[in-house]
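Late entry, evening session. Most of the bench is empty. Finally got around to the prediction I had been postponing all week. Sequence below, unchanged from the version circulated by S.P.
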Amino acid sequence: PPSFPFGGMENPRLTFATPTIIAGDKSLVVLVAHELAHSWSGNLVTNATWRDFWLNEAFTVYLERRILEEVFGRARVDMEATLDRATLADELARLGAPDQILHVDLNGRDPDDGMTQVPYLKGELLLRLLEDTVGRARFDTFLRAYFDHFAFRSITTGDFVAYLEDQLLSEVETGVVDALQLDRWLEEPGLPANAPLAESDALTRVAGQAARWGDGEVTARALDTAAWTTQEWLHFLTSVPDTLSADQMRELDDVFGFTQAGNSEVAHLWLLTAIRNHYAPAYPRLESYLIEIGRRKLIKPLYDELVKTADGRARAQAIYERARPGYHPISVSSIDEVLGR
């Protein structure tokens, strides 16, 4: 249902998925790949405690990327990885040091506190580092053995590390193993310096066009966007200046129709931009978006942005009065906290 607070949930043989992934162009099928991958990482091999939640999600994001590579090619994966690296950087800047740790300590806390981007994206970077270190063929052999060995079991981070050291790292030179800094990845905050860094030529070109438009060198209509994917549009919206004039907002909207975008992810970023720049023509869409969608990832940042100003807070409270009855309790709890209810 629209009120579903997550992107998806990997119930065995009955995956739940948010309707916000239906974009009409298959551009958001990454979530489908993610939930399918959970059949192995999460359902076949499961985390034993909430501290080990990263074992579910890191492996799943890694497998999701492998699926995307087979279906769409490496360039698409590089775009996804580049966007996610920026997402992770923003998340790490927001979180306190204890919550930046992969093997996070949740003793006495709500397990939901650990469901940040860290177990997903920092964890995936660790697995990608392992692949880069030993090579894909050897890492694939390890992965198959890992899922066979722990099939239908719930395991801890300690179980994973012991198996990794015995079945993979024991075959690698000591100096190479030391350079991995495995303990730092698992038990320390932040992102180690050896984290893999994806590069996307396509997104670099998008950022260049955004800069030229922001500097007034070209009009929006002159931008070369005909072949852009959703990922390129998302990067464009995060690459334009944070502060835009009313004329600039109107120009983008007139040319690209962002306010009425059918893609929920593109609409989300545009509405964030509209809130920051007090773009009133987008307010009716903002209201309908927040009422019709309950996915926490998409609605909470909009409320977070609204409450930064007095007018925005009043608008958020008015919308929330109408939207709250249709939200899932998980989303209600998060938005109640934002609005101080």
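Two things to note before I forget:
The radius of gyration is 21 Å.
The CA atoms of residues 208 and 239 lie 9 Å apart.
Will write this up properly tomorrow.
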